[in-house]
Predict the 3D structure of the following.
Amino acid sequence: MKPNFKALLPIGVFLVLYLGLGILFEYVLKIPMGFYNIPIVVIFLVALLVACIQNPKLNFDQKLSVMARGVGDKNIITMVLIFMVAGIFVGVVGRSSAESVAYFLLSFIPARFAVLVLFVVSAFVSLAMGTSVGTITLISPIAIAVAGSSGFGVPFCLGAVVGGSMFGDNLSFISDTTIAACNGQGCDMKDKFKENFGIALPAAIVTAIIIVIKSLGSDVGEAVIQDYNLVQIIPYILVLVGGIIGINVFVVLIIGIVCGSVIMLATGATAATDLLSGMGSGVSGMFETAMVAILVSAICALIEEYGGFAALLDLIKKIFKGQKGGKLGMGLLVGVMDIATANNTVAIVMANPIAKEMSDNYGISPRKAASILDTFSCIFQGIIPYGAQMLVALSVASELGSAVSAFQIIPNLFYPYMLLLSSLVFVFLIPEKKKSSEN
């Protein structure tokens, strides 16, 4: 395919519209969660219209056929189905277990290490639930309570929560970023998990050490203790263990759904009718993400047909030399997409087809490519002041009378910074295996 930079216009249109409207809503009109009040599906439809108008050599029926090939790809279908089933799982199990885990640890760990508990709990909950925003929504009120009773600063506590939530977002088997990265690059989730774990664990350990050192230098008060119930975390544990040992993700999620349904009904945590309602709500929560995956696959199919990806790949080859350069280029590519969209899942979905071409050209295995996409997107998403994670933390703090700014929290985001450092070590010092079980 002949390189053609004009074919990249739909991506440019999307980025200008989404980023421009986001800045307008968030910082000019002062609309709360401004970036997330923009109908992203509508913006992608505009980008798709631009792609359809381009290249008059193909008639509309031919363009529909090109789009159908993109949307009908096995990885796209698998991704959408996993999104839906994961939504049902979260809808069934609910999120009440997060608070139980936090209060369980706070009940016997000294108050001086309460911020470390917040980080560890946020990491575990996001790993089990697969959502950083959901974790922050649940744990932030506890962080505010810890700050109020212990004397630790609110930015310090919230920084630990946001950082811990990105740990699980990057690793969880039911995280939409993991689903998008693995299916986009064609690798097994357990392989990507093993690749990512070697990057994330050192970053988490160093972060924990930094938190402990900073905590030891502070005066502390009493711990926060409330009632807790650990039975409801069993489905999360099953899903986590099943994913790690390599059981098919659909089988793992179905086991989690069945187990969760039994526990929620047996403990009286929910009624049967509410359980069905929760399933519906869980699936509905994934509709936008699934639709974005479909629209992006259609747009990318047209861009590839027109020669846009060939042009972009040629440019990347001129800038980034060798396999290490290719890995860094891939990470920066998804990072720029994340800065522009403020959504790490969308950034991965948009970067996937280009990254796939890069992995073939630079000799990067699918598991490493998926790991780089997920990790770098989480690094940027965990730091940007207008990302959903930061905005939710700020909103919770404001509602509870502990208003802080994003720029007070950003210096306390130790985990994303350590993850960046660990990722650069991974890119430049860890060699690619010559032999791989992947195709």
